[in-house]
Amino acid sequence: MFLIIHDGRRTVIFATPAAAVIDSVKKAQEESASEVISRATKLCEQHMIKAEMMVISGNPKEMIVDASEDNNADLLVVGSRGLGQIKRAFLGSVSDYCVHHAKCPVLIVRPPKSSHK
């Protein structure tokens, strides 16, 4: 497996065994998921909210909708990154997908407005 990084001025090529890269990425994802679950658990406990946590892999759009259906969710709450129309058109919007495919109501939470405007 090759990783090619080009920053406009130079190109760097890393040659690494594919398995090593995949294992490294999986490990980083697992560590990140563990940290998020830990923070979310603490917040729920502080506010006496009963919550069930799970880590699932796959296409986020589909996995979130599937999990909401599998768990008979009454409400699906998703965040919005606040992408502009052009970025959203190219990258797709998880929240938009959820609104159109989830069987339960969907609440989209926007990021706070920046005070630097």
Keywords summarizing the entry:
alpha+beta; two-stranded antiparallel sheet; two-stranded parallel ribbon; 4 strands; 117 residues; 15% strand
Q: Would you give an account of this structure?
A:
This protein has helices spanning 18-46, 60-70, 85-91, 94-101, and strands at residues 2-6, 11-15, 76-79, 106-109. The protein is an alpha+beta fold and 117 residues long. The strands form 2 sheets. It has a two-stranded antiparallel sheet with strand order 1-2. A two-stranded parallel sheet has the order 3-4. The longest helix is centred in the N-terminal third of the chain and has 29 residues, at 18-46. 8% of the residues are buried. The model has no long low-confidence stretch (mean pLDDT 84).
Task: Please render the helix and strand layout as text.
Layout: E1 2-6, E2 11-15, H1 18-46, H2 60-70, E3 76-79, H3 85-91, H4 94-101, E4 106-109
Parallel strand pairs: 3-4
Antiparallel strand pairs: 1-2
Helix pairs in contact: 2-4
What's this entry about, in short?
It is built from four helices and four strands.
Low-confidence stretches: none
Number of discrete helical segments: 4
End-to-end distance, in Å?
Answer: 43 Å
Strand content: 15-25%
